[in-house]
Amino acid sequence: MRNVPIIWSIFPNTQRRGNCWRRNILPIETIAGDERMIGNIIIKSQEFGDIVGYENHSGQTFLDKTAKPLGQVIKGAGNNMTDANEGVRYNNIIATYLHGPILPKNPQIADFLIGEASLKATRRKRRFGAGKN
Questions:
Q1: Contacts by residues 97-100 (CB-CB < 8 Å, ≥ 24 positions apart)
Q2: Distance between CA atoms of 91 and 23, rounded to whole angstroms?
Q3: Which residue among 12, 52, 64, 108 has its CA within the 20 to 30 Å range from the CA of 101?
Q4: Where are the alpha helices (DSSP H) in 1-133?
């Protein structure tokens, strides 16, 4: 997946409708929950530091052993109601339940995404020649 662009996704966009979603894009399993998790959330990410956002979901998402969480929940519910994980970081994919103005509130993530996109564009220009599409 080295040549795949970086992907930032809110979990509902990476999940299919239905009772269970599993392993099509990410090594995770999500089942429908009975209770909604709604409110502000703060997580601590090794890669990005503190991340703030808003969550509103009833999905219960569990990570496979090959995936790592985006971060650990400091305040809020996160992926499910049994562990402290929030989101998933897998290859070039970052997926999370965090909603709201996530990039303006977390400029370190916006900077990362812009940097990755710029790096890929620079590599593409070098590979295909400057000025060519």
A1: 97/10, 97/11, 97/37, 97/41, 97/55, 97/57, 97/59, 97/61, 98/10, 98/41, 98/43, 98/51, 98/53, 98/54, 98/55, 99/10, 99/53, 99/54, 99/55, 99/56, 100/53, 100/54
A2: 14
A3: 64
A4: 11-14, 102-105, 107-128
Claim: this prediction has a pTM higher than 0.85: no
Cα angle: 109, vertex 114, 111; to 5 degrees: 35
Residue type, 21: W
pLDDT per position as a tens digit, 38-47: 999 999 999 9
The pLDDT tens digits for 67-118 are: 899 999 999 999 998 999 999 988 878 889 998 888 999 999 999 988 888 8
